[in-house]
């Protein structure tokens, strides 16, 4: 062994010779690369005096690396969402009321940003990029809902995961959806009132107001079936944004996981029931305002009525949103990740009985 290791030394004493490892005895710095280079393998160190000290020093210099988990794995995330569903289903009044009002207001603020930023942007960069930038600006609404804390009807469609897992009752689900939907509407109308009297829509020669009326008219004039299917697509993406944000471990990741799906749904022209609680009432409030006289095409806004709001848009879009969130996100992910576990539990219970 001594002839194989240049650091293995012999020290003569009056009581005989002592063999020792020079590196261990004199506290020389060591690294795994250095030991490999000199041929000092783990097997050799087991026979070498001071080898144990070398291994200890090597471990201290090179501590084991703990892998960084940047997001929750999908199976664990499904379990997390069941816990979120339980918490939301058990939120009582008046907390639920205020959080729902805030969510409606936050989505309306996102709609205001979308309207202002896109009022003349297509003139400079074309339709596609305008849709993308508008979608990014609109995403501030859901970012506020998730990070600041609020109760949004479309996101709360995911409570159905808790119902499927039998952690939440059907009564709790329907109660949450009803009250959150109602107070989301209240929050949206509060922002309509505030924005109307702010006069900001008069900027750019009234172009922002014209854009608000144009958006509302196009939504209120949609064929029923088109509104339904646009609603399905929309909440499929919105619930994925909520789902992904719960997988994220830091603020930046949460923002990006929200922004990308939301930008996609807005750019594609899908329909969000709570956003439309702002968009269409805002258009209704402005369509006959004297400040916009002569700037609007009467034929283009003919369908912008209360009837068009509720029958052509809000009802089919809400149904579509429910299908998109409940079926394509909550049910599918529960089926993939949680239903097998539930089946195993039931089988075990039966066999035990």
**Major sheet details:** 2 strands, antiparallel
The total number of structural domains is 2
**Largest sheet strand order:** 1-2
Number of helices: 16
Overall spatial form: elongated
CATH classification class of the largest domain: Mainly Alpha
Helix content, binned percent: 55-70%
CATH homologous superfamily heading of the largest domain? Glycerol uptake facilitator protein
Number of strands: 2
In short:
This protein has 16 helices and two strands. It is mainly alpha-helical and 353 residues long.
Lay out the secondary structure.
Blueprint: E1 8-13, E2 16-21, H1 22-25, H2 32-37, H3 42-47, H4 51-61, H5 74-89, H6 95-118, H7 122-125, H8 127-138, H9 140-149, H10 160-164, H11 170-198, H12 207-220, H13 224-247, H14 251-268, H15 273-286, H16 306-352
Antiparallel strand pairs: 1-2
Helix pairs in contact: 5-16, 6-8, 6-9, 6-11, 6-15, 8-14, 9-14, 11-15, 12-15, 13-14, 13-16, 15-16
Kindly describe this structure.
This protein is mainly alpha-helical and 353 residues long. The protein has two domains: 8-61, no CATH class; 74-345, Glycerol uptake facilitator protein (Up-down Bundle). 69% of the residues lie in helices and 3% in strands. It has 16 helices and two strands. The chain has helices at residues 22-25, 32-37, 42-47, 51-61, 74-89, 95-118, 122-125, 127-138, 140-149, 160-164, 170-198, 207-220, 224-247, 251-268, 273-286, 306-352, and strands at residues 8-13, 16-21. The protein has a two-stranded antiparallel ribbon. A hairpin with a 2-residue loop joins strand 1 and strand 2 (16-21). The chain is elongated, with a radius of gyration of 31 Å.
